[in-house]
């Protein structure tokens, strides 16, 4: 499939084999031999092919709810009018408030009135034609007619790991596969601790089989403190 895309981008069959670095009997005749190609051109070639393969795939975009619109209203509007329905992501944290002897829970969004959604590029304009009274979508240049702004998949995954709330398309690795070990130095990506270096001091197993990592951080003033985080909020160095 990659070779076929390379050929469609304008290269010869021999050049395509040179860039891919392997045989492609289903796309290129056997008598073709790989051409000698510059190493610095391979990344550019792969980038072009990657764009061809992924241009029509669902991507993450960002919408802003209009004043006075609640998320429940927006979600109902989308579920009622849009087919296929995009994946919506409105991350909130639970705040516990005490009023006298009573406790009350409140959901507070991490980014107020900002909703992430995953959709096919060609579905965005029809969607906002239908729900434009509830929200609008961010564009690259911030003016009508410019392309809708895409959130890179890597950035979206990192954001979800930082706040510890995930959508179904994000893979969470099982304990022991990509998790750090005792004494290992890691990068802490938890919200509020942007890219701080920490050391794993303890691994606390939970009843459900997962684990909480206790890490130590040093401050510029010579103090140290410890916090407990989930494995997804750590990156190994």
Shape: flat
**Secondary-structure element string:** HHHEHEEEEHEHEEEEE
Fraction of residues in helices?
25-40%
Largest sheet: 5 strands, antiparallel
Radius of gyration: 24 Å
Total strand segments: 11
User: Beta-sheet strand percentage?
Assistant: 25-35%
Count of individual helical segments: 6
Structural class: alpha+beta
Strand order of the largest sheet: 10-9-8-7-11
The poorly predicted ranges are none
Provide mean pLDDT, rounded: 80
Please give the alpha-carbon distance between the first and last residues: 34 Å
Commentary on this structure:
It is a single chain. Helices cover 25% and strands 28% of the residues. The chain has 237 residues and is α+β, with helices and mostly antiparallel strands. The strands form 3 sheets. The chain has a 5-stranded antiparallel sheet with strand order 10-9-8-7-11, with no helix packed on it. Strands 2-5-1-6 form a 4-stranded antiparallel sheet, with helices on one face. A two-stranded antiparallel sheet has the order 3-4. A hairpin with a 5-residue loop joins strand 8 and strand 9. The longest helix has 15 residues, at 40-54. It is flat. The chain starts with a helix and ends with a strand. The mean pLDDT is 80.
